Amino acid sequence: MPGIESEWRKAIEEERALKDEFMARHTESPFVAERVPFNPLNYFPVDAKYRLPARLERRATPEEAFLRTNRDGSAVMRYLGDLVFSLEGHRHRLRVYHAGEGVGTSVFVPFRDRTSGKESYGPGRYLVFTLTEDDRYDLDFNAAFNPYCAYTDAYECGFPPAENDLPIAIRAGEKAWLKDANPSSPSGAILEMTRRQLAARARKPAPKTPAKARPRRATTAGRRRTRS
To answer: Which position among 42, 119, 134, 143 has the lowest Cβ density within 10 Å, counted as fewest Cβ atoms?
Structure first.
């Protein structure tokens, strides 16, 4: 219905404006915390094509999974099942992960698509949602966002597994923050971060070797004067 779609679009635009305000000013923002100059986030235009029904096909038993991170480590997750949906005439699947204690029933879906490394952040974007009892969802790629490691190396984030590489372009959600500093892939992000770290170390001056201390005689100037 036109009225419902208008409200949905308005809600997305308001959420994006609030996120810019948070990123620019809040102490928990990666830009504020790490003193990174802030530029407004970039987005694809809101498009109802990328809002569609989906269902979660759960695994009989959640499986421990390890997602590669931007520091070339591993983030431990629980693989719950596959989010199944249809787009552009084809059926697609995305693995759904739970990050463990502290997040309740919130889960996330890291994914890449044909825009990754070009219009969107190369290592991938995230979707988050809350689990439902019937495992049916309103999947909205307009809400896709970049992990904090897209803005600064100070944060560690998990990259999508190969199974979550979509063979289509998802022109919805957040774009790359800086087009001229957008790694093409997860491996590219790791190599780029390593290069920056090595360059930073090379710029640091070598520590000076302290001169061997010689015993010094006490002098009047070195003593504390007292009044008689």
So the answer is: 134
Within-domain flag for 214: no
Residue 57 lies in a domain: yes
Q: Per residue in 159-198, pLDDT tens?
A: 999 999 999 999 999 999 988 778 888 887 888 788 877 8
Q: What is the mean pLDDT of the chain?
A: 88
Does an H or E element contain 203, and which?
helix 186-203
In terms of pTM, does the model score above 0.90?
Answer: no
Query: Using CB atoms within 10 A of its CB, is residue 68 exposed (0-12), middle (13-18) or buried (19+)?
Result: middle
Give the number of domains in the chain.
1
Type and span of the H or E element at 199 = helix 186-203
- CA dist list (Å): 47 to 51, 60, 104: 8, 35, 30
Is residue 114 included in any domain, yes or no? yes
